Amino acid sequence: MTQPLIQTAAPLPLLRVRQLCKTFGGVHAVEGVCFDLQAGEMLALIGPNGAGKSTTFNLLNGQLKADSGDVLMETGTSLLGLKPRQIQRLGVGRTFQITRTFGSLTVLENVQTACLAQAQQPLQWGMRPLSRTQVAAQTLLEKVGLGAFAHLPSQTLSYGDQKRLELAMVLAGNPRLLLMDEPTAGMALEERLALMTMAKELAQERRMGVLFTEHNLEVVFGFADRVAVMAAGRLIALDSPATVQANPQVQSLYLTPTLKTTTTTTSTTTPTTAFASLTSGASKPKSELV
Ligand code: ADP
Ligand code: MG
């Protein structure tokens, strides 16, 4: 007897970016960019300065209006033309390169403010919603490792801890998708690794998709499930870290002129080994990556 054919539809990606375009005057900042992002996935967006990464981020979160293309959530809802606040309400959270917290409030109050904003409650200290948000906020602080600092003024936190606080505030919005713009900029390596480890754990626990820009290639290849590479507005590679690392077009973007010369004049240094040494911090990229 033949078994009935049971077809289960594959889940739609959390985010689908299709033929996204944005020009500034004559500059094609983003040109025909397409990618999917799965729930629970860490996707790194890298590329030299001016490649179009920030513009892509700004198109996704509504800070910029796309000329054409589409950005679809898994529900099929298009984010195009929506305001940043509406996009945030659809489950897209964003951290900023410059941390945005209220320095005079305590660490806990900062997160409570974010919880109240999410619940669309006015900020009324001493009222009942506050005690509810206090518990929620403390839980989020424990999650990011700041539980013990809850009652300190947030301006007294170290730079790395401010970034954790910002992450807790974004998590208050229960994002399905987290956009992290240079999350570890200005951090010591130890703090960078701790923050990215946390982001990866959160992505897995909450099945949250994370799109991040990062200029440190060790962090990129250490934490990304896949790596997307942009150059001059176009996506030139999108694959596993190992495959992207082995891509000659990507290698050429990151090789210094000196290394390129070395590569052509000696038979011992191949682009692959030069790129590999770059990722381990042994040499410098020819331009900043983010
Ligand atoms: P990246 O983040 O990869 O460094 P950007 O997205 O910031 O790159 O920039 C991509 C291109 O678009 C660059 O040529 C940049 O000069 C240009 N650009 C970005 N934002 C603006 C803007 N607001 N007005 C004009 N040109 C812009
Ligand atoms: Mg940028």
Q: Could you characterize what this model shows?
A:
By secondary structure, this protein is an alpha/beta fold. It folds into three domains: 12-91 and 177-245, P-loop containing nucleotide triphosphate hydrolases (Rossmann fold, 3-Layer(aba) Sandwich), CATH 3.40.50; 101-174, no CATH class; 247-284, no CATH class. It has eleven helices and nine strands. The chain has helices spanning 53-60, 84-89, 107-118, 128-143, 159-171, 189-206, 217-223, 241-245, 248-254, 257-265, 271-279, and strands spanning 15-24, 27-37, 42-46, 68-73, 92-95, 177-180, 209-213, 226-231, 234-239. Strands 5-6-7-3-8-9 form a six-stranded mixed sheet, sandwiched between helices. Strand 8 and strand 9 (234-239) form a beta hairpin. Helix 3 crosses helix 4 (128-143), helix 3 runs parallel beside helix 5 and helix 9 (248-254) packs across helix 11. The protein is globular, with a radius of gyration of 21 Å. It starts with 14 loop residues before the first strand and ends in an 11-residue tail after the last helix. Mean pLDDT is 83; it is low at 256-274 and 276-290. Bound molecules: adenosine-5'-diphosphate and magnesium ion (MG). Adenosine-5'-diphosphate is lined by residues 24, 27, 29, 47, 49-55.
